[in-house]
């Protein structure tokens, strides 16, 4: 699985690092920062430079150069501006350059259900709308966002996009082998989600296949027959010949430490967990009711025996220099941890499979 870190900062971008946007397999975008068009252009150009200089491993280079046209799904964790502010810019780009493509392959935009309620309340309050008008303003988040975008771009924008409101606990088949899961986070009382993306693929046990000396035509029968297939007086079941490879990535969006066991369970058996770590340590005056400190997150993951392979802290506050973040992670690595912590870096890529992880900067 290939994960692109376009930006890693929280709330306010810096000259070296945009705010959070994560691109998986060039198709799945998680959060879209306000400076997205600009930050994506830097991200894309860096890929091209690395590729031209032969610095990309071949199995990564074959995924192709990132482009806006390849993005098929956008998953927004919540409607704070630093997590969805770039959507308008992307839609402007789409209407200028991608209308023909998107008529046949719409851009899917996912938002948490109830995430637009604060926007609706403010709109009604500021404009002092009469009750008869209030009733016409949608409560459903997908309908509200659709109306909001139509007011800016006109009805034509609905020809090119789908807007889907998601509840916690949903499971969505995106395409063959790829599945998305959702869970509520404590960042907001309503309308904030964590996402988990799972790639599953069956692998044939070549050693077992050779041992059984199976005819080729029986392989498909064994895969599709729940009771198994008898060959040379031996019953061969699917589990004898096939194993399932799962690669899993989870992203918390903005989130304090989970207060419900459902969210800890959600992160169990994840390969790569990208989690809000706005702060390095828990200090008085920090917004720990809405965001997490890396120190506490690492301690909780370890104590609760949450089985992950890699942790990537993200949404780093500007009060912490990136050199300070790297030094702090180096100190944490000296402790006995059940997982590895990766130093985050904007405009970088992380490739992982069942055996190893590689970082490209």
Short description:
This protein is α/β, with parallel strands linked by helices and 361 residues long. The chain has helices at residues 36-52, 58-61, 81-84, 87-97, 99-104, 117-127, 131-134, 141-153, 206-212, 216-224, 238-241, 261-267, 294-303, 322-332; strands spanning 2-7, 21-24, 28-30, 73-75, 107-112, 161-166, 171-175, 178-184, 193-204, 229-231, 234-236, 242-251, 270-276, 308-314, 340-341, 348-352, 357-360.
Termini Cα gap? 16 Å
Number of strands: 17
CATH superfamily of the largest domain: Ribonuclease Z/Hydroxyacylglutathione hydrolase-like
| The CATH class of the largest domain | Alpha Beta
**Which fold does the CATH topology of the largest domain refer to?**
Metallo-beta-lactamase, Chain A
Unreliable segments of 5+ consecutive residues: none
Residues in β-strands, percent: 25-35%
SS element count, helices: 14
Largest sheet: 8 strands, mixed
Radius of gyration: 23 Å
Would you identify the CATH architecture of the largest domain? 4-Layer Sandwich
């Amino acid at each position: 699985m290939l994960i692109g870190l376009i930006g890693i900062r929280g709330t306010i971008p810096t000259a070296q690092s945009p705010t959070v946007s994560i691109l998986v397999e060039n198709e799945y975008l998680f959060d879209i920062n306000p400076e997205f068009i600009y930050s994506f252009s830097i991200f894309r150009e860096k890929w091209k430079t690395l590729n031209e200089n032969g610095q990309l491993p071949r199995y990564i280079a074959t995924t192709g150069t990132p482009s806006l046209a390849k993005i098929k799904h956008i998953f927004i964790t919540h409607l704070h501006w630093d997590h969805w502010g770039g959507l308008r810019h992307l839609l402007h780009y789409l209407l200028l350059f991608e209308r023909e493509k998107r008529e046949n392959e719409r851009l899917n935009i996912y938002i948490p259900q109830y995430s637009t309620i604060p926007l609706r309340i403010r709109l009604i309050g500021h404009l002092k709308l009469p009750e008869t008008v209030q009733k016409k303003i949608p409560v459903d988040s997908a309908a509200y966002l659709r109306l909001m975008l139509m007011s800016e771009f006109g009805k034509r924008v609905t020809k090119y996009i789908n807007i889907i409101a998601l509840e916690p606990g949903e499971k969505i088949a995106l395409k063959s082998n790829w599945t998305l899961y959702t869970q509520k986070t404590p960042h907001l009382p309503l309308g904030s989600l964590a996402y988990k993306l799972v790639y599953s693929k069956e692998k044939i046990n070549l050693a077992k296949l050779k041992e059984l000396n199976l005819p080729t035509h029986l392989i498909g029968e064994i895969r599709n027959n729940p009771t198994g297939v008898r060959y040379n007086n031996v019953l061969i079941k699917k589990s004898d010949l096939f194993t399932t490879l799962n690669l899993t990535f989870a992203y918390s969006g903005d989130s304090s430490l989970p207060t419900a066991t459902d969210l800890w369970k959600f992160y169990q058996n994840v390969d790569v967990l990208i989690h809000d770590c706005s702060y390095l340590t828990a200090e008085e005056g920090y917004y720990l009711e809405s965001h997490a400190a890396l120190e506490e997150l690492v301690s909780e993951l370890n104590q609760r025996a949450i089985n992950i392979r890699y942790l990537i802290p993200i949404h780093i506050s500007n009060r912490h220099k990136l050199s300070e973040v790297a030094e702090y992670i180096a100190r944490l690595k000296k402790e006995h941890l059940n997982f590895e912590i990766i130093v985050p870096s904007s405009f970088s890529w992380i490739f992982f499979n069942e055996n190893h992880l590689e970082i490209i900067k």
